[in-house]
Design goal:
Blueprint lengths: L5 H13 L9 E4 L4 E4 L13 E3 L3 H10 L2 E7 L5 E7 L4 E4 L12 H17 L1
Antiparallel strand pairs: 1-2, 1-3, 4-5, 5-6
Helix pairs in contact: 1-3, 2-3
């Protein structure tokens, strides 16, 4: 696993507060007490059962999350730097977009863009 940025870790923590992602063999998680990432090596999966265990998401996890909700995704990188993402529900118009009037995208990494979109979906589902 590549080193996550502080913003990505913060977003993973925010997602963990709203969604109990199953941690399976080979997944990464963060022990909040030590703030050290670990690889889950036990065979039985567990649901986010301990408050100090935070699943660390990957782009693949985000794509699987969107796919389970029957959503399409577009993610773009811009020459001036940064990433932007859009989600669509297949039966409707755009569901989520981080495109704004500012010229430069705010997301520094593709994972950051994906995690913000996951949070938007979770927020909408929680209403």
């Amino acid at each position: 696993m590549t080193k996550l940025t502080p913003e990505e870790v913060s977003l993973c923590k925010q997602v963990a507060e709203k969604h109990k992602k199953e941690v399976k063999y080979g997944d990464w998680y963060l022990n909040e007490k030590s703030n050290i990432p670990y690889l889950w090596k036990s065979i039985p999966p567990f649901k986010y059962i301990h408050k100090n265990i935070i699943p660390l998401w990957t782009i693949s996890d985000c794509l699987e999350f969107f796919d389970k909700r029957d959503m399409e995704i577009t993610i773009n990188h811009f020459e001036e730097g940064g990433w932007r993402i859009q989600l669509w529900k297949k039966e409707s118009q755009a569901f989520y977009s981080d495109y704004s009037t500012s010229a430069k995208p705010e997301n520094k990494t593709p994972l950051e863009a994906c995690l913000k979109a996951v949070l938007a979906v979770l927020e909408e589902e929680g209403k």
